[in-house]
Design goal:
- The complex is a heterodimer.
- Chain A is built from no helices and 11 strands.
- Chain A has strands at residues 5-7, 10-13, 19-24, 31-38, 42-50, 53-57, 64-68, 74-78, 87-94, 106-107, 111-115.
- The N and C termini of chain A lie far apart (37 Å).
- Chain B is mainly beta.
- In chain B, 0% of the residues lie in helices and 48% in strands.
- Chain B contains no helices and 10 strands.
- In chain B, the strands form 2 sheets. In chain B, strands 1, 3, 4, 8, 9 and 10 form a 6-stranded mixed β-sheet that branches. In chain B, strands 2-7-6-5 form a 4-stranded antiparallel β-sheet, with no helix packed on it.
- In chain B, a hairpin with a 5-residue loop joins strand 6 and strand 7 (70-75).
- Chain B starts with 8 loop residues before the first strand and ends with a strand.
- The chains are: A mainly beta, B mainly beta.
- Chain A binds chain B through residues 4, 42-45, 48, 55-58, 90, 92, 98-102, 104-110, and chain B through 30-32, 34, 36, 41-46, 49, 51, 87, 91-93, 96-99, 101-104.
Chain lengths: 116, 111
């Protein structure tokens, strides 16, 4: 099976713009979770989508949003970009919804977003 | 405020066991502990997870303290390919999942 793919891999934007990142999960996986990774804050959970519904949400402002399509592909949108949004954005897919009891997540390589 | 703390870095010699600690002193009774590792220029990959008792799989072992305030990831024989950043993650089992990441431990394996 092909792994999780993310597009684009690199992106440069300026403050105030908006950006959309895409994530294609492993075939058959219905859950997609998004994470932000920065040197200062480390890894942080943004949100999870399962069967086109947002199931879980981290502690991020409303400028960060997402959606999931019927083929399980997911997009994440960040509006009114700030310098602090520069980060590696990772998505992960799994067969079932995020669960503490198991359900291994498979991560993509990430999209490196730079905000100037 | 829930915190999960890990040492910034550790070193190990190849072929020797490695014990990577994680402190989660504010853990609730139903939070699970997951470990993932991130190799350079890659996304994280799953290593192991557990709740109370010790767990083993082909990659590693997870030892959870009796009071659950700390846990230790054990790599039985470190190889050069195990050099990575290891993350300890708490995942709540409530209706709304909360994930609390440790800051990660950079493991260096010396040949």
């Amino acid at each position: 099976k092909a792994g999780v793919t993310q597009t684009p891999r690199y992106l440069i934007k300026t403050r105030g713009q908006q950006v959309t990142l895409s994530c294609s999960p492993i075939s058959g996986h219905r859950s997609v979770s998004w994470y932000q990774q920065t040197p200062g804050q480390g890894l942080q959970f943004l949100f999870e989508y399962f069967s086109e519904t947002q199931r879980n949400k981290g502690n991020f402002p409303g400028r960060f949003s997402g959606r999931q399509f019927s083929n399980s592909r997911s997009e994440m949108n960040v509006s009114t970009l700030e310098l602090g949004d520069s980060a590696l954005y990772l998505c992960a897919s799994s067969e079932r919804s995020l669960s503490p009891t198991g359900n291994e997540q498979f991560f993509g390589p990430g999209t490196r977003l730079t905000v100037l | 405020d829930a915190k999960t703390t890990q040492p910034n870095s550790m070193e190990s010699n190849e072929e020797e066991p490695v014990h990577l600690p994680c402190n989660h002193s504010t853990i609730s009774g139903t939070d699970y502990i997951h470990w993932y590792r991130q190799l350079p220029s890659q996304g994280p990959e799953y290593v192991i997870h557990g709740l109370t008792s010790n767990v083993n799989n082909r990659m590693a072992s997870l030892a959870i303290a009796e009071d659950r305030k700390s846990s230790t990831l054990i790599l039985h024989r470190a190889t050069l390919r195990d050099a990575a950043v290891y993350y300890c993650i708490r995942i709540s089992s409530g209706s709304a999942r909360q994930l609390t990441f440790g800051s990660g431990t950079q493991l260096t394996v010396l040949p």
